[in-house]
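Q: I'm a student working through a structural biology exercise. My instructor gave each of us a protein and asked us to get a predicted structure, then write a short paragraph describing it. Mine is Imidazolonepropionase. I'm not confident about reading structure output yet, so if you can add a plain explanation after the tokens, that would really help. Here is the sequence I was given:
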Amino acid sequence: MSDGGAAGRMLLTGIAELVTNDPAPGRDGGPLGIVRDAAVLVEDGLVTWVGPATHATERLAPRHEREDRREAEEHRTLWDADVEVVDVGARAIIPGFVDSHTHLVFGGDRAEEFAARMAGRRYEAGGIRSTVAATRAATDDELRARLAGFVAELHSQGTTTFEVKSGYGLSVADEERLVGLAREVTEEVTFLGAHVVPAEYADRPDEYVDLVVGEMLAACAPHSRWVDVFCERGAFTPEQSRRVLRAGAAAGLGVRVHGNQLGEGGGVGLAVELGAASVDHCTYLSDADVAALAASDTVATLLPGVEFSTRQPYPDARRLIDAGVTVALASDCNPGSSFTSSMPFCIAVAVRDMGMTPAEAVWASTAGGAVALRRTDVGAVRPGARADLLLLDAPSHVHLAYRPGVPLVARVWKDGAAIA
Ligand code: NIG
Ligand code: FE
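A: Happy to help. First, here is the predicted structure for Imidazolonepropionase. I'll explain a few features afterward.
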């Protein structure tokens, strides 16, 4: 099978099941908009046509400006010559994963802390400070090399769009360096200077918030698209969090929130109040939180890797979906609470333990992530979207949950070019 390419034309055909996330009459799978025995035409990095494979040759002919379609049919090889035809062999294609929540710029790891948790210790926000020390001690090149390794890991597991947060620097210079490094690998950079209060400000948290909303935000906003805060016991109060988010919004950044991870807290209420694009974790929710989310445009982003590796109870996706909340899944890849970059793993856990169907989990990992990042160019396979596609070594999207732990990523294209 050939690789395709960003420039030019590529016809993917022989697709047993195409998940488009673009429902239309005649398509199955509700929001997944499934087309069976499908083909996809990619031109100059964009999807330009989607439909039944049997109609694909029809679609190809016009580019050659042949007035006489019959002549085109008779000279198939002529008009086939400038399109690379890739037969994927009766397997499934879904949109590339959109991982809307990661913390990938850091030094060191916390394997010992994980082992201690598995022996019974609780997860606490304070562990973040040990990664802050390791990150400050690392050089730019060390952090850059580590980040490049994570990006390769994401791509090889089918992720084509990903967000990266700062938050392990917690000084003006270190946060600026982290958002700058993140910006080298993604447009979706989030300033998380308010991750925890660093040790040197331990007894004066409000002074730290002053720094975050002042000099630190001014240094980081030019490299960032989003502002985020960890609104939680042991991190920032709702009042402190509100200050940070309002300042970020005033600097032109979109709002995201870490909330309701370790207890009910006020994170969800604050996110809805400020019109955040997403509130992430949502592990402990009151009925009022669920109702507020359902009445808002704020996405609830669930992070199954966190509960897996902290042994907290899983968030109840079923409750949220049944209430009408838009749910996304993301990896939260970070060295403390969730050191996985695998969206297939998150899907398998969400289906097994969070009440999601395979279809809901696949939607939440692709289209849901796109909504959480307010993106309309990714997360779906439809004309005009970026050609970010994931070929599975399986006949259907269900296998992502049905075959946990099995490498099912056969090929990944980003903007029409093969990246894995
Ligand atoms: O999303 N909750 C806050 N931040 C990260 C954890 C970071 C860490 O433990 O290092 C999270 O889970
Ligand atoms: Fe996080």
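A: Here are two points you could use in your paragraph. The radius of gyration is 22 Å. The CA atoms of residues 71 and 415 lie 33 Å apart. It's a good idea to check both against the output above yourself.
Q: Great, thank you!
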